[in-house]
Write a structure and sequence with these properties.
This protein has 689 residues and is α+β, with helices and mostly antiparallel strands. The chain has two domains: 286 residues, Collagenase (Catalytic Domain) (3-Layer(aba) Sandwich); 208 residues, Neutral endopeptidase , domain2 (Neutral endopeptidase, domain 2). 51% of the residues lie in helices and 6% in strands. The chain has 28 helices and ten strands. Helix 2 packs across helix 17.
């Protein structure tokens, strides 16, 4: 089961949380001249009552979620398709007789070693013995602090960054300084929890109480499998320790407050502001001994966790560290550890009945560990220059449309409008793949050493991140690989990434009318552009500097519109006892509404005054909005959906599709009338950009 890591809030993902899907055969909808799945619609539903069901109702009724997935829909379908392409590339590398140190050898041997379960079983816990002995030998605060420092890793995997917490006590992110753009600084982040969120430890509801009981049983099961005596008592102590850590953690609202998080500490301040941990020992072991300045994103949490290091019994920390180490490496340890890890994180937390096939996970592991090496092959094989050019043309339509919307804002003052236009003009948009690829020549990947390969990859990425501290910030750096089905806005760098893998059907298809593409990939492009101007992105200027560039009047108008959107989404209730959190999801909801608006304007610009083509009896505008709703097609298991409501900054798919109710053209396209479920009076429609 994939484990989450912290992604700093100034790096905002669009499809944050996608998981690699099953490679089972996808259902191919009946083709239409409009490029839509007409069979998947349910015309018995009035578009104005439930547009998501109208666009997807038959598909929702007739499509089961595969047993090895927590959800299934368009995202997972594209992941399946990308997975098959990636699998072929990885297998080709594995079949080559490649020279040691070449990317083919690295990809092939990483894949084959991960698949070699016989070798993994034969080695047992032997690869972990040195670490286990180090933990057993911890006898005081300094060696404990040194161990924490030795376990720091760089949080670099954007695809897997769906949560606020890193595996280790503190996470590390090296990125552009928000106060002084152009230089990189280390960001220190709260971490150390085994469950997805502090509320899993602190929420008193019966459901969370039951999950905590099952988590304690999981901890004990892991320790028992490692032959540790007194597993039940140790599990009790570990859960108690993690609960105290959770109390020290900042909640999601505090973590999402950029100004509160952007706290610069000089190195000597750590001893006085966060006493407890031996900071000199910690920084020496994680490679930051010479660093003079840090950004401490959750200062209260860092102080609280540091205090626990000295106040909690050493034996409790040693039990905790042993358990976390076993958890961290579960996928490359004997099968009993891998299966137990899935039993809790897959079945209990996400409701997934069946673990994915080991071969599929091996492909994912190789494509993650050697992302750019696999990505180069993916681009050569599956991303034509004509597709890149076509996507770049769409981006230009989007940017032109957004600039026009800025000009039309009656409430925006001239000074703020000029700053907004400057930011839009300097936006860096990456399409398909990065300008500069990662060099893996210093990375040793060995045959038959799945554990060692994972460990060396993590240390390689840590070293690569630390090297950025001596270099200027690179606005062209990517945080995703070309084979990632996702898109990202990087407000601190004023940059966007659209990997090659998301630029394929049904998001992006050169063989269908432009209306469908603008409704799907166009809305994604518009979404990411608008992230630069939402409640988070609007805090950064054109250089990525955190500053106030809005007048007070403009900021008040923007906040008023945002509050109305909070109220709109607060009313969505997937379960009687659980609703969407309009404030937690505000940033993404703003981007959905603004992105759809900009995509529609971009589509109209692309027509250049020409008459819309009617396809399958649908007007251009109807094709556009149906494509948008079908791009959000998804079914989610209840446990996974509840987890999303509690922890994810993105609304569930059906409510993201409901962004249409804020767009005037949608009402005209489907003749939506007052009294229908989604109808909003013109004055109640939220128009932020």
């Amino acid at each position: 089961m994939r484990k989450s890591i912290f992604l700093p809030v100034f790096l905002l993902l669009f499809f944050c949380g996608l998981t690699a899907g099953s490679l089972a055969g996808e259902r191919k909808p009946k083709s239409s001249s409009a490029g839509l799945d007409l069979e998947g619609m349910d015309p018995s539903v009035a578009p104005g009552n439930d547009f998501f069901a109208y666009a997807n109702g038959s598909w929702l009724k007739n499509t089961p979620i595969p047993a090895d997935l927590e959800s299934y829909g368009v995202d997972e379908l594209v992941l399946e398709r990308t997975g098959r392409k990636t699998e072929a590339l990885v297998e080709e590398a594995a079949a080559e007789k490649a020279r040691p140190g070449t990317e083919s050898q690295q990809i092939g041997d990483y894949f084959k070693a991960y698949l070699d379960t016989a070798a993994i079983e034969a080695r047992g816990l032997q690869p972990l013995q040195p670490t286990m002995e180090r933990i057993a030998g911890i006898s005081g605060l300094r060696p404990l602090s040194e161990f924490f420092g030795s376990q720091v890793r760089a949080d670099v995997d954007a695809l897997n960054a769906t949560d606020w917490y890193t595996d280790n006590l503190f996470g590390l992110w090296v990125a552009q300084d928000l106060d002084r753009p152009g230089r990189n600084v280390p960001y220190l982040l709260q971490g150390g929890l085994g469950m997805p969120d502090r509320e899993y430890y602190l929420d008193a509801s019966p459901r969370m109480e039951e999950i905590r009981k099952q988590y304690a049983a999981h901890i004990a099961a892991v320790l028992e499998r490692a032959g540790i005596a007194g597993a039940d008592e140790k599990a009790r102590r570990i859960l108690l320790l993690e609960t105290r850590m959770a109390k020290a953690h900042a909640d999601r609202a505090a973590t999402g407050d950029i100004r509160r998080g952007n706290q610069h500490w000089m190195r000597p301040e750590f001893e006085s502001r966060a006493p407890g941990l031996d900071w000199e020992a910690f920084f020496s072991r994680c490679g930051l001994a010479g660093q003079s300045e840090f950004v401490v994103w959750q200062p209260e949490a860092v102080a609280g966790l540091s205090a626990l290091v000295s106040s909690e019994p050493i034996e409790s920390w040693k039990d905790y560290l042993l358990f976390r180490t076993l958890e961290h490496f579960a996928t490359v340890l004997p099968r009993k550890f891998d299966e137990e890890n899935f039993a809790f994180y897959g079945r209990i937390l996400s409701g997934i009945p069946q673990q994915r096939d080991r071969r599929i996970r091996a492909v994912d592991a190789a494509a993650s560990a050697l992302g750019d090496a696999v990505g180069r092959r993916y681009v050569r094989r599956h991303f034509r220059s004509s597709e890149k050019k076509r996507a770049e043309t769409m981006v230009q339509y989007m940017i032109t449309a957004f600039a026009a919307r800025i000009d039309r804002l009656s409430w925006m003052t001239p000074s703020t409008r000029a700053r907004a236009k400057a930011k839009l003009k300097t936006l860096v948009v990456g399409i398909g793949y990065p300008k500069r690829w990662t060099d893996y020549s210093g990375l040793r990947i060995l045959p038959g050493d799945a554990f060692g390969n994972l460990e060396r990859v993590e240390l390689f990425e840590l070293k690569r991140s630390l090297q950025k501290l001596n270099r200027p910030a690179d606005r062209f750096e990517w945080v995703m690989t070309p084979q990632t089905v996702n898109a990202v806005n990087l407000p601190a760098m004023n940059a966007l990434n659209f990997p090659a893998a998301i630029l394929q059907p049904p998001f992006f298809d050169p063989d269908r009318p432009a209306a469908a593409d603008f409704g799907s990939i166009g809305a994604i492009i518009g979404h990411e552009i608008s992230h630069s101007f939402d409640d988070q992105g609007s805090l950064f200027d054109h250089q990525g500097r955190l500053c106030d560039w809005w007048t007070d009047a403009d900021a008040a108008q923007f906040k008023s519109s945002a509050e109305r959107l909070v109220g709109q989404y607060d009313r969505y209730r997937p379960f009687p006892d659980a609703a969407v959190n309009g404030r937690l999801t505000l940033t993404e909801n703003i981007a959905d509404v603004a992105g759809l608006s900009v995509a529609y304007d971009g589509y109209r610009l692309s027509r250049k005054g020409r008459k819309d083509p009617v396809k399958d009896g649908l007007t251009g505008d109807q094709q556009f909005f149906l494509s948008f709703a079908q791009s959000w097609r998804q079914k989610v298991r209840e446990d996974a959906l509840r987890l999303q409501l509690a922890t994810d900054g993105h609304s569930p798919a059906e409510y993201r599709a409901a962004a249409v109710r804020n767009i005037d053209a949608w009402y005209e396209a489907f003749e939506v009338k007052p009294g229908e479920g989604l109808y909003l009076a013109p004055a109640d429609r939220v128009r932020i950009w």
